[in-house]
Design brief:
The protein is of the alpha/beta class. It has helices spanning 26-42, 54-60, 81-106, 122-125, 140-152, 176-182, 204-216, 235-238, 241-250, 254-257, 266-272, 282-289; strands at residues 111-115, 133-138, 164-169, 191-195, 223-229, 276-280, 304-310. Strand 4 (191-195), helix 7 and strand 5 form a beta-alpha-beta unit.
């Protein structure tokens, strides 16, 4: 899935200085949290996914300077609610969506669109066909930080990739689809779409508009994978150690970042538009891969759903 994780990818001096505008608070800081989880997972002997770039994103941001990036930094291992349980959830999600994208490409898709790409390094760490184009859509500040870190990595290891990577600066409350087509995206070709952690933070209206645009720009044979949450959570769930430990140790109040509007039934909407849609719990993939989080009382992960759709 990626090259060896022991290679020297040292960040050059000066990368952190002035490089954190897009990863400082709120939703952007959660991308750093996911990067730390991927960094820890990379060093596990039974890693679900490997991302040798992740720890460099974490260390380049002052907020993540003291966060763990290796299992040895997490004394309680998977029993740790933040870096163990939630971290392994992010790794499981990464693996499931990685596999979905690679399956879509194996079936002929040559355009991949990462909606809310954040600090994702799929363009660099996955084995893509040479004629594949990855479009990363996100805010300009996120890309500025990301590129500065990539530019600071040792020559010959930081920018290796097989696919053509195109960054698209856009806000999902504006005409992101227009920016995507202006960057070269072709709606007449099959596309593999991914919205990994995006929808949890969008208002319901923006989510509906996003899916309408994805439907409008998807040729037959296109696929879509995304993460959703069923709805508001009880007080007991909001007091789950996954949430409380994350707030105490990182300052990230995950429940507060979730949009409080009623969530649209996007799987039903996609089905009505002619997509074939399957909805899964994360725990199904724990069983599939043989590792990952298992259900617990008042579970912060229980309302999460991973949706996989195909346009015939």
């Amino acid at each position: 899935m990626s090259a060896g994780v022991t290679e020297n990818l040292g960040v050059t001096e000066g990368v952190t200085e002035g490089a954190t505008e897009g990863v400082t608070e709120g939703v952007e800081l959660t991308t750093l949290l996911v990067a730390a989880a991927r960094a820890i997972e990379t060093h596990r002997p039974d890693a679900l996914a490997r991302d040798r770039y992740a720890e460099h994103f974490v260390r380049a941001a002052p907020a993540g300077a003291h966060w763990p990036v290796h299992p040895r930094d997490v004394p309680d291992g998977e029993a740790d609610p933040l870096w163990g349980r939630l971290g392994r959830y992010f790794a499981l999600r990464t693996r499931a969506f990685d596999d979905q994208l690679l399956r879509a490409v194996q079936l002929g898709a040559r355009q991949v669109v990462l909606l809310g790409a954040g600090l994702d390094a799929r363009a660099h760490r996955l084995d893509w066909p040479g004629d594949c184009t990855l479009y990363e859509v996100d805010r300009s500040e996120v890309f500025a930080f990301k590129q500065r870190v990539l530019d600071g990595l040792d020559t010959g290891t930081g920018e290796q990739r097989t696919a053509h990577r195109v960054t698209v600066e856009a806000d999902f409350r504006t005409d992101w689809a227009g920016a995507l087509t202006a960057a070269g995206f072709r709606p007449d070709l099959p596309t593999a779409w991914l919205a990994e952690g995006l929808l949890l933070h969008l208002p319901g209206t923006a989510e509906r508009e996003l899916f309408a645009a994805v439907d409008r720009f998807s040729a037959p044979g296109s696929t879509l994978a995304y993460e959703a949450k069923l709805g508001p959570e009880s007080a007991a769930v909001r007091d789950n150690p996954v949430y409380t430990a994350t707030l105490e140790r990182t300052g990230i109040d995950l429940p507060a970042l979730l949009d409080a509007d009623p969530r649209p039934d996007t799987p039903a909407d996609l089905t009505a538009r002619g997509w074939s849609t399957n909805v899964h719990t994360p725990f199904e993939f724990t069983r599939h891969y043989g590792r990952g989080p298992l259900p617990e009382p008042d579970d912060a992960l229980a309302a999460n759903r991973w949706v996989f759709a195909v346009r015939p």
